[in-house]
Design brief:
mainly alpha, 82% helix
Length: 206
Amino acid sequence: MLFPKNYNFGKLFQELSVSVKDISSLFNNVCIDFKDLKEYSSKAKIMEKQADTIAKEIMNQLNVSFITPYEREDLHLIAVEIDDIIDYIENVIHMFRIYDIEKKPKFLDEFSQVFLWASSTLNELIIEVFQDRRDSTKIQKLVVAIHEYEWQADEIYLDAIHKLFKDEKDPIEVIKWKEVIEELENIADKFKDVSNSFVNMLIKTS
């Protein structure tokens, strides 16, 4: 497919995808350090605002562009879903600070690794989708990879919830960690949602 030369949706979506990689990397640093949570929370807030600016610019371009590379509603949905990933990761980092969490369970590192892999793969997917002549085989492999990462996150989620209810005796701690674990699972689900939205969008042009 040949796109109009004056469009910049590919560039904007790549910038939004880089924001996902950046905040996934920040989350990984949080999991490694697990201290200075107030500072990390502030950094996450800044990253989220920067991503919001990019997402808003995509919406503005959709409103004013006469021709778009794909259906407007599909591009709008994908922009919202990618922005959601950033919001969810930011929210988890804030939870660590708000709940004054001091002990780091093993599953945080496991989720963090999944997010690093998924964010990098999503970036590759976006680059390929907005090529003038995209590689359908490569796109399929990238989508499958994201689905596999989401499956890994499901397993981490189940193990984490099981261990939480088995080992934790403090009901307040159970409530706090259950919310964190569920939000981490939501992040992985949202990566899968984005990949599915890309597939649905591309089907319309095939």
